[in-house]
Design a protein that fits this description.
Nucleotidyltransferase, domain 5
């Protein structure tokens, strides 16, 4: 199983999916972490001119071109089953689910702690952190 987490430094979970520059991908075999690797991730900095703000009260991530942007952000983790994030828009969340990647939105900041809690079945999925 492979679990990805969005990150800026390789150890902490970034607070926003679109702004994070990379993923830390953790490989788990028989309940134990066997490998870690950092993978580049496209994001807001790559398509800032095409990333409109949502209107107040509107769910983020469903505008023109959003699906293509989300797909490009997910390409490098297509082999992962789970993505752990600190926050994200609804469009990206739905895009991950459509790609058979389970998105988990959490307030845990340590990647190692979040992976441990996920494997124990105790990682909170805080849907109220979606925008």
């Amino acid at each position: 199983m492979k679990i990805a987490a969005i990150t800026e430094d390789g150890t902490t979970i970034s607070q926003h999916f679109g702004r994070a520059p990379s993923y830390l991908v953790v490989t788990v075999e028989e309940g134990k972490v066997t490998a870690k690797e950092t993978r580049a991730k496209s994001g807001h900095r790559d398509f800032a001119a095409h990333h409109p703000d949502s209107a107040p009260g509107e769910r983020h991530g469903y505008g023109e071109g959003a699906q293509a942007r989300h797909t490009s952000m997910m390409e490098t983790i297509a082999d992962c089953q789970v993505l752990i994030v600190g926050g994200m828009g609804w469009g990206a969340y739905d895009g991950l689910k459509s790609s058979n990647i389970e998105p988990i939105v959490t307030d845990i900041t340590s990647i190692d702690e979040a992976v441990k809690l996920y494997l124990e079945g105790n990682l909170p999925n805080l849907m109220e952190r979606l925008h």
